[in-house]
Specification:
Number of domains of chain A: 3
Largest sheet of chain A: 8 strands, antiparallel
Largest interface: A-B, 92 and 92 residues
CATH topology of the largest domain in chain A: Vanillyl-alcohol Oxidase, Chain A, domain 3
CATH class of the largest domain in chain A: Alpha Beta
CATH superfamily of the largest domain in chain A: FAD-linked oxidases, C-terminal domain
Oligomer: homodimer
Number of strands of chain A: 19
Strand order of the largest sheet of chain A: 15-12-14-13-17-18-16-19
Helix content of chain A: 25-40%
Shape of chain A: globular
Distance between the termini of chain A: 16 Å
Chain lengths: 457, 457
Amino acid sequence: MSINTFSAKLKKLGVNTESITDTMPLRGAAGLALPQKVVRPLTVKHIQAIQKIAHAEGVSLWVTPNASGNGLQVSQADGEPVLVDLSRMRSVIKVDNDSAYALVEPGVSYRQLSAALQAKRYDFWIDSGRNAADSVVGGICDRSLGYSAYSDNLLMQCGMEVVTADGALVRTGMGALPKGDCWQLFKFGFGPYMDGSFTQSGLGIPTKIGLWISPAPPAYRPFALRIDDEQTMVAAVEVMRDLRINMVVPNTVVVVDGDSERKLLGGNPAPWNIYGGLYGLPKNVDILWGMLNGIAAQLKMRLEDLTQATDSAAQARAGLMQGKPAAVWHDYEKSVGSRYLRLVFALPIEGDKALHFAKRTQEIAKAAGCGVTVEQGTAWRTLMGEVLLSYAEGDVQRALACGKTLISEWAKQGIGVVRADPTFHQAVAATYSDPGFNKLQALLAEAVGASPARRAA
Amino acid sequence: MSINTFSAKLKKLGVNTESITDTMPLRGAAGLALPQKVVRPLTVKHIQAIQKIAHAEGVSLWVTPNASGNGLQVSQADGEPVLVDLSRMRSVIKVDNDSAYALVEPGVSYRQLSAALQAKRYDFWIDSGRNAADSVVGGICDRSLGYSAYSDNLLMQCGMEVVTADGALVRTGMGALPKGDCWQLFKFGFGPYMDGSFTQSGLGIPTKIGLWISPAPPAYRPFALRIDDEQTMVAAVEVMRDLRINMVVPNTVVVVDGDSERKLLGGNPAPWNIYGGLYGLPKNVDILWGMLNGIAAQLKMRLEDLTQATDSAAQARAGLMQGKPAAVWHDYEKSVGSRYLRLVFALPIEGDKALHFAKRTQEIAKAAGCGVTVEQGTAWRTLMGEVLLSYAEGDVQRALACGKTLISEWAKQGIGVVRADPTFHQAVAATYSDPGFNKLQALLAEAVGASPARRAA
């Protein structure tokens, strides 16, 4: 009766255990044995109590930053699972106009952080994904990639507060100093830098995270390159690698086929589409535009200025690259509900590999009877291939099998998954087979008290 | 007789234990009980054997990446200390022209990596400190800040191979995947990101580290702003914060007083000096130069184009910002030998704080009878204040006492040390007193087998 004791003890602290009615936060855990109960703490002290009591009662904690479910942590321990929903902890604790940072609680969504900045008339861009309801903290803990120049969400993270499995409250980086203004200014603090250990890991429950935010540039010109044939797409990716690494196009350069783009954002895309943005002083942007125009002419691509876009997908792309989530994304979620799963693969930014990855992934998924989209985007040196697999009602096993096929097939070709919905975590982890690395991760989990062994004990 | 057994076992593997003759690598450990013996492994297998045998025989390992001593790891365990000098492991394993990265062994110096790139006629800048002989890996493990736009050395690190205390070989990130080209392309891999735990920590001996390198920009115009009075310096730092955060000046903006600059690089500096660089297409640099000229006129600062510099310090600054170490730095080392110690503090990028830090630090050091330089430079959101304390022959206690005073005085005002020579590690760590953070670091050290307790056992 461990879960009853857990509930009774928490009730005394004013935290109710309720039945789960909204299953959206558990979307990425489809196929696993799901928790039936949820607790919604309001304070850090609540979370410390939840960790301690769960530990004592053998309850396994799942964690979702907010109702959107991005950044969902799934426990692999044996105990009865309970979901910790942090959506009531949704304070934008601080935004700093001079040093361009924010400190937020886990429930805060991209929409809410943007609104908080607008209310103060601060002119910043918040790097985000497609969904405005997603948690900012969830994005960092998931190591999401957005579309602006601050796209690498963990790289731009600065300062963290987490509660570990034993209920200890940890402030990392400069937050471990009793006094001072640098918690959101300097990432690494002194001694081993451990913030990264709390991403994609479930080793702690995040309660506050700092992030750097990007001042709006004086000028911004988003563009699309429209491409009809594969050969040109391959050549274009090669050029985009150079432009990205040289910071001429400093944001996430997206490469997406027409089929995937129509499913994701609608509109009327070309067979292949490349999106990027130019940023800077107005005159500088003009110069870069001239350069881009020359490249487009040489490779016979159609260059479009997306500030003039009328097409829904093109408008959405222009917004995404300045950190505005895409309203049209809801059409995708309307069509598939919570019946989709995400895998993100890491590839070199090379044209032939990008083409092969997009085509072969869609072939495999279609043969397996799944809906599929592939969107590829540049990080600092990598092309990240995001695959969404959708499935019909009651058909989750089909999507799970297809996802596992993709994971193992691509691993054999040296292409690894770097972000995955929780239902795929074990399959992905099995492909990272370096024995030293596996041992190190196990030692870390055991030390922080979050390993199955410790939990069960 | 543990060290004799250690030596005998290693001799069988072809690794000799010798007496230390060059004390430069131990510069930063002045005042500690120093090792008398050194081993110089040639292979990863040697390092695995050294870890295992040291563990078995109760020998404490100190580690220096090369003869320069940057990135020195000091063991706090009780056993007899032996220095592991990695300078024979000095292979530039790979440089990639398309994706702009390098993979190097720990002994490789900035000079050597630059030469390897030049030999292939690859046009990259290597972010470095003042000293060309310093180890690239040492800079990353120390979390050094260079002067180019890639100044945050840990942020630009990608992929690592380390040998932990139990002799296990660990490949992090995409290196844990048995196959693939992404080890130096994507930092984080899958699951908890742990590379940061091997920096400023002594939790493992690095054997290979990858790093992103910066393509040489089409145009580069380094500048100096010369300032005569404190009020203008304060105003200038405020403006530089905005230019840095907006990436108009994307590299480390240095602020240094004339006294410190003369000691560091010589020449004929002004009472206050600010250095930065403009990068990009030639026409873009012209536009930014016009903007900078306007700012200089408004604040009554003298703007100098350092491509025209004749002064030794000014020439050195122009080189540093494109990743060229400063030859004139050797004058400093000639004057003080290895009798200097380093502390780096983290401050907000604010004019009044920068002025107070520079002045008060020099007052304290001069009152203590130490030579002192203060050089401040912008990271992404922080002003890093590097303090060098020099001392006369036989007078190390004076510098140690002064350093400890600075550490505790500034901590009381909320300004923490983020990089320190090993002799100051314990004093600095004591200022980061968050109990959860301290417990977490202790658990990590114990788990990885590098804690004093485990070592002694």
